[in-house]
Amino acid sequence: QVHLAESGGGSVQAGESLRLSCVHSGPTDRRYCMGWFRQAPGKERDWVAQIGQYTQPSYADPVKGRFTISLDYAESTLYLQMNSLKPEDTAIYYCATGICPILGVPDIVAWGQGAQVTVSS
Quick check: 84 pLDDT over 90? Predict the structure, then answer.
């Protein structure tokens, strides 16, 4: 079974940065992509970013220019560098793997456990 283990969440002030990590273990498929979603209380789980071996990185409009997704193939680790954080970025962040391109929840085949990110004004 695919397992995704997240780390790197925390509480920061607006304007600061965090980096989330997601370690993949188990079967892999080079045709699949990895990505990040986030979910605030009372809100739906929204797509944030995605990347794949044959798929260009892409980002949701609210995080463009501030977040960077990357994948270290040697260590099977997905990252999300989050700069210039805003209170509206506060959410539980989930890493995921699924069908390329990852653009929504239906594309996902496995989820991480979630990492809380809290941004204070």
Answer: yes
